[in-house]
Amino acid sequence: MESAFDRWFARVNAVLLVAVALICLFPFYYVFVVSFASPWEVRQGGLLLFPKEWTLDAYRYLFSTDAFVRAAGISAFLAIVGTVCSLLITSMLSYGLSRKRLKGRRTLLLLILVTTLFNPGIIPGYLVVRDLGMINSVWSLIVPVLTSGWYVLLMKGFFDSIPAGLEEAALIDGCNDMSVWYRIILPLSLPSLAAFGLFFAVAYWNTFFTAVLYINKPDKWPLQILLQNLLIDSSTSLGAMSDSALQNIPSQTKKMAAIIVSTVPILLVYPFLQKHFAKGAMVGSVKE
Fold first, then answer.
1. Which of 114, 78, 108 is nearest to 93 (CA)?
2. How many Å apart are CA 136 and CA 220, to the nearest integer?
3. Domain tally for the chain?
């Protein structure tokens, strides 16, 4: 029987959690509102909670500039191509390490474990990328972070939970290792692939530090670098505009619209992967 104290405690907790949620959501709401507010309301200053006039001028401005469209395309390329490449490499490596018949398996696992404990540092990484001729190349933002030792170990734990009898049956039927990986393992690993795919996609979309190190040409900046320059210096040029009337938009409105555009794509992807997220992240991480 629930006591009066338990009911009171639950209500207080609910009120506190709602208050904390509103505090956390308010910055996102404010950025959203300002990005759609009319220029004259933004210029008035003060706290803008609900604009009297909604407009898409800031978004029209962003998508009419060469630099923003190009940066958004580069970030989209990183998120899509980088995620696919990372999932392929991580799943293939994890599957191979999960098979006990692999020669040198313990040595490889030890080497991968070392990479999770020790980081070579910025300078060795830059020298490797430079010697590979990838400076100012979009591939310099993908190849050095193609996989993670921690993700490999987690996905290996997921593959360890798949019964070995399925693989043995496929081998008896004439499949080779690649066929087993493609036809048997991957279809059974969709929850894990969805979870790790989201991790990779968010990391590639938010690429910032590696772009600062390896990309020196403004025309090859991803979206996060362009956004950072736009937030620091409102005079940052975004290139030619198709509508000269949009030049009078306040810089604050442009910044807020750029933040929304750089945030929304990941927010839209997450709901489609949510049902696989918890299962994919936890399966294989705990042994029964």
1. 108
2. 7
3. 2
Task: Determine the Cα–Cα distance for residues 228 and 262; give it in Å rounded to an integer.
Answer: 11
Residues 33 and 110 in one domain: no
Closest CA to 247 of 61, 43, 66: 61
Give the largest Cα separation in the chain, rounded. 75
Task: Determine the Cα–Cα distance for residues 174 and 221; give it in Å rounded to an integer.
Answer: 48
Q: Which amino acid is at 41?
A: E
CA 227 from centroid of its chain's CA atoms: 16
Asked if residue 169 and residue 109 are part of one domain, the reply reads yes
pTM above 0.85, yes or no: no
What are the b/e assignments for 97-121, b being 16+ CB within 10 Å?
A: bbbeeeeeeeeebeebeeeeeeeee
Burial class (CB in 10 A: 0-12, 13-18, 19+), 262: buried
pLDDT of residue 192: 82
- Determine contact, residues 40/56, Cβ cutoff 8 Å: no
Q: Are 222 and 74 in contact (CB under 8 A)?
A: yes
pLDDT along the chain (288 residues), means of 10: 78 93 90 84 76 83 84 92 93 87 86 86 90 92 90 86 79 80 83 86 91 90 86 60 58 84 82 62 48
- Looking at residue 287, what is its pLDDT? 46
d(CA 165, CA 180): 12
Tell me the backbone φ, ψ of residue 211, rounded to 5 degrees: -70, -35
Shared-domain flag, residues 39 and 61 = no
Nearest to 62 by CA among 248, 238, 229: 238
State whether 277 and 158 are in the same domain: yes
| SS3 state of residue 285 | coil
